[in-house]
Amino acid sequence: MDEQPTILVIDDDPAMQTVLEIALREAGYRVEVASDGQEGVAKLVSLRPNLVICDIMMPQMDGVEAFQRMKDQLQEDGIPIFIITALNRKPWFADLEAEGAVIIQKPFDIEQVLSLIQTMLN
Description:
42% of the residues lie in helices and 20% in strands. It is of the alpha/beta class. Strand 4 (81-85), helix 4 and strand 5 form a beta-alpha-beta unit. The relative contact order is 0.17. The chain has helices at residues 14-26, 37-43, 63-75, 93-98, 110-121, and strands spanning 6-10, 30-34, 51-55, 81-85, 101-105. Strands 2-1-3-4-5 form a five-stranded parallel beta sheet, with helices on both faces. It has five helices and five strands, in the order βαβαβαβαβα.
């Protein structure tokens, strides 16, 4: 049997971590959680996720800086990075998207996110 794909969730909101973790596990993914960008970037040393979901507004290191630190390492391996945010669309979102980020606005439909993850991983 194939090994479960691993998804790294980086979010400082425990409720959002829980929602994503439960939905992703039920969909058959292995889930690792980090509470801020610094912890998430550090976990990449030992963890080779198949996909990363990262919030923008977090303490220590925000999601934009975390994306900048992760993208070169992950994108050359074809690992997608989803950025979730409660912010209204900002002009600089286009820069992140041009660099390969997939931006998902909160609140989001978890089924749509799961469908998008499945598409990206296949």
